[in-house]
Design a protein that fits this description.
3-stranded antiparallel β-sheet; about 30% strand; about 100 residues; globular; two-stranded antiparallel sheet; 5 strands
């Protein structure tokens, strides 16, 4: 498990393998086979999860979400960063690479 990891705009994030995800009434729920735990990602969390099928940066996530929702950039960045931190702590996403600035 990754503890106290700092999400960075210089990293690419993607889904960790070994999770079973399903849609339930517009929300995504996930079973971590490795941990034997269920997670409710919710509607927005499910969208973020789908966007992380391929490696993606925080900024790419924020840009996509802002094109779909009326949300300020700062608030969106904070919410996305917090969500990814939670997923990292549970081992549900992985850091793929560091991108070159």
């Amino acid at each position: 498990m990754i503890n106290n990891h700092i999400v960075s705009e210089k990293h690419l994030y993607s889904q960790s393998p070994g999770n079973i995800v399903s849609d339930m009434d517009g929300e995504k729920v996930m079973l971590s086979v490795q941990k034997g735990k269920y997670y409710n990602l919710g509607e927005l969390g499910g969208e973020i999860w789908d966007l992380m099928k391929e490696s993606v940066t925080i900024q790419e996530l924020v840009t996509t979400l802002q094109s779909q929702y009326d949300v300020a950039q700062t608030e969106c960045e904070e919410q996305v960063t917090d969500f990814i931190n939670q997923l990292l702590e549970q081992g549900l996403v992985k850091i793929k690479d560091e991108i070159n600035s």
